[in-house]
Amino acid sequence: MKGMGNIQKMMKQAQEMQENLQRQLAEMQLEGSSGGGMVTVTLDGSKTLLSLKIDPEVVDPAEVDMLQDLVVAAFNDAAAKVDDEVSQKMGAMGAGLKIPGLF
Q1: pTM exceeds 0.85
Q2: How many degrees, rounded to 5, is the angle at CA 71 between CA 69 and CA 77?
Q3: Alpha helices in the chain (DSSP H)
Q4: Residue 25 · residue 46 · CB < 8 Å
Q5: Where in the chain are the domains?
Q6: Does domain 2-96 have CATH number 3.40.50.790?
Q7: For residues 22 and 13, what is the distance between their CA atoms, to the nearest angstrom?
Q8: SS3 (DSSP) at 63
Q9: Which residues contact 44 (CB under 8 A, 6 or more apart)?
Q10: Using one digit for the tens of pLDDT, what is the confidence trace for 2-50?
Q11: What angle separates helix 64-96 from helix 2-27, to the nearest 10 degrees?
């Protein structure tokens, strides 16, 4: 039953790594911007919008469509950064698991 002990050990290690990753995602804060920094958003690792900053210079009632586009672009910029960061952390997590035939 030595093999069973190894499987349990690997499962526990995988669970600990998953919990660690979830903790890191909750603490992560990444910014995205558009319009040369006129609109900036901050997202957490789950892509929840934490903050939105708009330069007052951009606020023009005649240009609401442009402002909306800038907010969307800033959000998408931050979301792409979250995706990149999560991919890096997932890659590092996978490298920590020593599963024969996979890594």
Answers
A1: no
A2: 100
A3: 2-27, 64-96
A4: yes
A5: 2-96
A6: no
A7: 14
A8: helix
A9: 25, 26, 27, 28, 29, 50, 82
A10: 667 788 888 898 888 888 888 888 899 999 999 999 999 999 998 999 9
A11: 160
